[in-house]
Amino acid sequence: MEAIAYAFYYIIPYIAVVVFFGGIIYQISRWRQVGVPPVRMSLFPRPEGRLARLLDALVDMFTLKGLWKVNKPLWIGSFIMHLGLLLLLTGHIRVFNDLDFVWNLLNWSPEQVDQFSKVAGITAGLLFMFPLFYLLARRFSGAVKWLSTPEDFFVLFLLIGIAITGNHMRFLTHVSVEQVNDFFRGLATFRWVDPPISAGQSFIYHFAFVQLLMIYFPFGKLMHTIGTVFAKMVARS
Asked: Nearest to residue 180, comparing CAs of 1, 9, 64?
């Protein structure tokens, strides 16, 4: 167990980063090699100009307005989950560097920063986690049950594992931001330090699940988060 934990602490993170960014670049390059289709079948109304089409595609992606038109319950669950994920990704900036300039600008004391971080982290974590259980439950009934594949369940269980371990650290431990910063800065500079003790045992599972997600991401269905922009750009070209 110690050898596995050591690998996920100090070896696999580098593999995960290389596979994540390398895989995304590889997939985008494959899409670009497909070329322009000989027949244009644009969706209307079509924004004029490449920038306008890009902005329209991004708005469509972030609001999920296409899903709203066909399945409102699914839109609610998906939108809330994606909102929680966006808030979590924003908050995780503190993993690498605390936002001291923001706290100084707001003139907040360390106690106020800690309280805000706790409330915001709990809110974002719950917004992310609960819709995942809904998205999982709907795959056990109706037509969705017969359309679901093992990969669909793998992704959902992996995301739920990330959510549960992250919320466990938030609810049951008091994670030291300084210890987390030191750990990840050590990884970035190849000057390894001990993992953050304040995060408890949940940290290794949370960190390992995230690495598995990064390795899977470029080659699985979650790549749609990037591919959908290209698809919508083509549809509006």
From this structure: 9
- Note whether 93 and 180 are within 8 A (CB): no
Place of tokens 């699914």: 74
Dist. CA 232–CA 138, nearest whole Å: 27
What is the assigned CATH class of domain 2-35+76-223? Answer: mainly alpha
Q: Which of 59, 40, 29, 32 is nearest to 237 (CA)?
A: 40
User: Domain map of the chain by residue range?
Assistant: 2-35+76-223
Predicted confidence (pLDDT) per residue in 29-38, tens digit: 887 777 666 6
Rounded CA gap, 125 and 118, in Å? 10
What's the rounded Cα separation, in Å, for the pair 38 and 58?
25
Tens digits of per-residue pLDDT, 91-111? 888 888 777 777 788 888 878
Q: Is the pTM of this model over 0.70?
A: yes
Q: 196 by DSSP, 3-state: which?
A: coil
List the structure tokens of 49.
Answer: 């100009």
Q: Nearest to residue 85, comparing CAs of 117, 46, 123, 36?
A: 123
> Comparing C-alpha atoms, which of 177, 183, 85 is closest to residue 126?
85
CA distance 165 to 162: 5
Q: Cβ(121)–Cβ(91) under 8 Å?
A: yes
DSSP assignment of 121-168: HHHHHHHHHHHHHHHHHGGGSHHHHHH--HHHHHHHHHHHHHHHHHHH
Q: Would you state the structure tokens that stand for residue 40, as one six-digit string?
A: 């244009």
CA distance 14 to 18: 6
